[in-house]
Amino acid sequence: MPGMSDAPSPLRLNLDEAVILLIGVRLLGEMVETIEINGRSQERLIPALIDKLAGVVPQELQRITGEIIEEILVSHWDEGGGRPAQDDEESFPGPMYAIEQTLPVLLEAIGAGRTVAVDYYSMANEDVGTIHLDPYGIKQVGDLYWVVAFAHERGERSVFRVDRIKSLSVTERTFAKPDSFRIDEFFADDSAS
Q1: Which SS3 state, helix, strand or coil, does residue 61 take?
Q2: How far from 180 is each of 67, 136, 186, CA to CA, in Å?
Q3: How far is CA 13 from the centre of its chain?
Q4: Can you give the three-state secondary structure of 108-165, one letter per residue?
Q5: Residues 42-64: tens digit of each pLDDT
Q6: Per CATH, is 94-186 categorized as 2.30.30?
Q7: Which of 79-88, 89-98, 153-162 bottoms out in mean pLDDT, i.e. has the lowest?
Q8: What is the mean pLDDT of residues 4-33?
Q9: Of 28, 115, 184, 189, which is most buried with the most CB atoms under 10 A?
Q10: Is the pTM of this model over 0.70?
């Protein structure tokens, strides 16, 4: 058939390749507003590609990719003062909920050693989900507050942006903060700022 030899062959990926590609595309979607190809905006291209890839990646692996993306974005600090790599707020987009009520509750939970149930907006999942945290400490970096906590669902310590907490409640469960915990270990050296 004429012209068929010029058509690209279908792209075939194994599951690992699809997961890596999904992580990359979702990160790209978090870091840029739009992409131009041949001078035309492709603002629907990234979400459509994410949907296509998510359609072949199992839910559990999608959840894991979301956690990987969140960790990459949170740990992406520059070497000058512990600030996010880009100075503008758009480098960490997403809803920003008021912290005036959230921050005091977190501080109270830290002081009392109490677990909190948090409705948290995950950029990676673009959704609000409930997670249970043992909050160990809070650090202000620039205009943002971050809480370092043991995340029960992840089974590990993680860093969360306080203004992405939509709501929270203190539970009856108690915890003991590890003696070895040092909040600055989770942030770039900001002694120069």
Answers
A1: helix
A2: 24, 11, 13
A3: 26
A4: HHHHHCEEEEEEEEECCCCEEEEEEEEEEEEEEECCEEEEEEEECCCCEEEEEEHHHE
A5: 666 677 777 788 788 887 777 77
A6: yes
A7: 79-88
A8: 74
A9: 115
A10: no
User: What is the 8-class DSSP label of residue 71?
Assistant: H
d(CA 57, CA 188): 34
Name the DSSP class of 77: B
On the 0-12 / 13-18 / 19+ scale of CB atoms within 10 A, 39 is exposed
- Over residues 110-160, the pLDDT tens digits come to 999 999 999 998 776 678 889 999 999 999 887 788 999 999 998 988 888
Give me the residues paired with residue 23 across strands. none
Number of other residues whose CB lies within 10 A of the CB of residue 121: 19
Tell me how crowded residue 3 is: count the other CB atoms within 10 A of its CB.
Answer: 6
Cα dihedral 141→144→148→154 (10° resolution): -130
Contact 120, 152 (CB under 8 A): no
CB-based contact 65:126 (threshold 8 Å): no
Going from N- to C-terminal start, the domains of the chain cover 4-75, 94-186
Whether the per-residue pLDDT at 5 is higher than 60: the answer is no
Secondary structure (3-state) at 46: helix
Nearest to 152 by CA among 137, 173, 167: 173
Helix (H) or strand (E) holding 28: helix 15-31
Place of tokens 């599951």: 15
